[in-house]
Amino acid sequence: MAGRPKCKIHNYQGKYRKSIHIIILKLWDHPDGTKITDKELMMNNRRNGNNRRNKRNGTDLTNPQGERVIHRLETQTRRSCSPVFCKLLWFGMPMILLLFWEASANGNPFSAPGIPGSLTVQMPANATNNAAPDATTDAASDATAHAASDATAHAASDATANVASDATVNATSNATANVVSGVTANAASGVTPAAAPEQRLPSYRVTGFMQQTFTYEQDSDAPAAFSIHRARVGVAGRVTDRISVNIVAGALEPLGRNPQLVNGFVDFDVHPMLRIRTGQFLVPFGLEGPEAIFMNPAIERSLTIRRMNMFRMFRDVGVQFSGSQEGFTYAIAIINGTGANVAERIDMKDLIGRFGYHAGEFLSLGFSFHVGRVPLPATEPDRYGLGADMTYRRDDVLLRGEYIARKEEQTTGGDRNQHGGYLLAGYTLNGSWQPILRYEMHMPDTSHDFSDTGLSILTVGLNYYFQRQNRVSVNYEFRNDRRSGHASVVPGNLLTVQMQVVL
Q: Is residue 255 within 8 Å of residue 182, measured between CB atoms?
């Protein structure tokens, strides 16, 4: 070592050598990712003197893994030091510090975890710009639009169960479509897409639908007419993650053609087995009753179901408890018993409900009950109802029906017994066309043995769905009323054409 020129930096005692070594060690990380502190540097300098005197390599340090790296770095720098190296280090250190500072400010540090001094190279986003064609972006945007409109259409439902399920579909469809379209669009512009934002609460959406009809009834004094059969609009959405609201008003409602409050309820999601609904809602009895009218394959609910319905607009005010678990569903309500938008007249309340069971992938069964009193303050006669329903849906095939029996005490003595039901079949062609066939019968008999005959109707129809539940429908009803002594209410055959638009 006698003939080797002295290091220019090492000739300066303490000041420059200590500064450079400290700078190097400050940029050096422990293998566990932590920075080397001033205290560790001081302890290392003290132990390095002992190590040199005892000819050790740092194995007796307090932190062998970290401080041995410090010792090795310092001794290797000292041993390999040469005038050329020192000059490069002297003039290159400011540039190294400047680059490190810029990289840290841009959020792209030079050093990779566990590998000091390594440089992470980020590929430009434009390299993948051409991989995202405009067709993909358009498809994703269309998917977003369709998912949002369809989910909103379903959320417009005034049915008991449809509001909750449509809210889930809306959230899922919009979230999926927005993520796909956002990723594609951002990739095309060279921007890294951010994570999909969570749904903000409260969140509300406009719901509703309109039905325009043309009707012509044979053998009737009523003229053929165009009309707005129903026009409803409202707001539905979530107040919190457990509370949702549905308020829908009808600008035109049959039969009086007057504005009416249709839905006005709040849902409290306590548990998958318990949802509490309060307000005015569709009563849970039967299959067609609690179903949104625009979901019915026919233009209108069967005449049998309408005549045996005890509640105005198939709705009432009260509180309902519902839930589902492993194929079983239930909905039980305590209601006034007077119907929608009608004040209560008696203290006693009606108990009504429906139990459902999914017997397989394609078959669903239901059982309904009703126990209450006729809202007549003077006598309050009892009334009862039982119902059974079935739905079979597989691919393009639809088959469903229900049967209802009712018993009502008469103020003049005796009971009025009536029963009836329907069976509907449909088949979807090419995803848009659906011919349907429905047969119904109603026995509004006052005799106990049902000896008198009643009403029967055969409906032939055709639906064209141009988007989800938006459709054009044609129904023709062959009516046969054989009730004796009811000539004044005998209906004729009925032709109905309807355009239905759901928001």
A: no
Distance CA 235, CA 206 (A): 5
Q: Please check whether residue 330 is in contact with residue 323, taking contact to mean a CB–CB distance below 8 angstroms.
A: yes
Residue environment code for 169-208, b if the CB has 16+ CB neighbours within 10 A, otherwise e: bbeebbbebbebbbbbbbbbeeeeeeeeeeeeeeeebebb
Alpha-carbon span 279 to 321, nearest angstrom: 12
Q: To the nearest whole percent, how much of the chain has pLDDT over 70?
A: 57
What is the C-alpha to C-alpha distance for residues 402 and 354, in angstroms, rounded to an integer?
A: 13
Task: Indicate if the alpha-carbon torsion angle 131, 134, 135, 136 is positive or negative.
Answer: positive
Q: Do 175 and 226 form a contact (C-beta atoms < 8 A)?
A: no
Q: Top-level CATH class of 203-502?
A: mainly beta
**The token pair that represents 103 in the structure block:** 């990289």
Q: The pTM is what?
A: 0.61
How far is the CA of 288 from the CAs of 261, 329, 390, 475, in angstroms? 20, 16, 11, 17
Q: What gap in Å lies between CA 214 and CA 492, rounded to an integer?
A: 16
For the ranges 122-131, 196-205, 337-346, 430-439, the one whose mean pLDDT is highest: 430-439
CA distance 456 to 439: 7
The token duo for 446 is 């006052």
- Residue 152, class by beta-carbon neighbours within 10 Å (0-12 exposed, 13-18 middle, 19+ buried)? buried
Q: What is the pLDDT of residues 394-410, one digit of tens each?
A: 999 999 999 999 999 98
316 phi and psi angles, rounded to 5 deg: -160, 175
Write down the domain spans for the chain: 8-105, 129-189, 203-502
Q: Is the pLDDT of residue 128 over 50?
A: no
